[in-house]
Amino acid sequence: MKSLKNIIVAALLGLGLFSCNPLKQLQTEQLGAENQYAQGNFAVAYEKYSSLIEKYQQANLEVPYSFYVNAAISASKLSNYENAIKNYNFALIDSVTLNSVKGLIDATENTSGNNLSTVLNKYADYLKANGAAEYYNTKVFDNEVRNGNQDNIVSSFANLSKPTESQSMVYINALETLGKKKDAIQFCSDLVKENPDYYKAREYKAMYYYDFAENWYKNEMAKYNKDKNYTAYVYLKRELKKVSANFRIAKDEFEVLHKQYPDEKKYVRYLKNTYIRLDMKKEAAELDKLL
């Protein structure tokens, strides 16, 4: 009733914005906007909703909530994120809903002038109270990744209840960047054990143990070659057994990766070199044919 009264008052004041039957014209324009929106013609729908919103505002009338929301969604579909944000903010003044809050966050996430942290902080309690805690935690994590703060990446990852392989790899790399390589490989090893099809994690684990073993091998050989004597030889044999244990871990992972990606030459080369270090000459020769 309030909107109808405002329309009648506007018409009586002779604002000249509508025809002699303002209510009917508004209803016709609204139906046109809704039809275009329903058909997925978002460019046309956005223009129609924007026109309706402008007419309502100029006449000092209360703009229906759905106008702002549909205009915001249409703008987002067109990658017009600034106007999407504007319309979502107007909608949220009227009524705070989960879909509009998420829409605002998603649109803000796509803008270059990133004030996503402010928006997330503003609606954190609302999202958590309305069953969207994981959505909120994911957006916070993704935002920290974009900002590049490794400490914040690590701390925000802890709030993810079901992290993906991609998110887990970001976390692993953050740990490594922070100098926590042992924590990174321990987490990675547990991740592979729980998720055998996480091949990016398998590659990280394989490369870690290969590089660790290879560097250890070269270091021990360099020390032995400086002073070749019986005592040094005994010590070398003992150390190479430890080195081989790490090569075997790398071997197991590279074998899985090679089986999964038989055309990937990188895995063939690393597996061949690992076989050589483990004195598996026959296996190394077979892989050599693939190169």
Automatic annotation (TrEMBL):
<protein>
    <recommendedName>
        <fullName>Tetratricopeptide repeat protein</fullName>
    </recommendedName>
</protein>
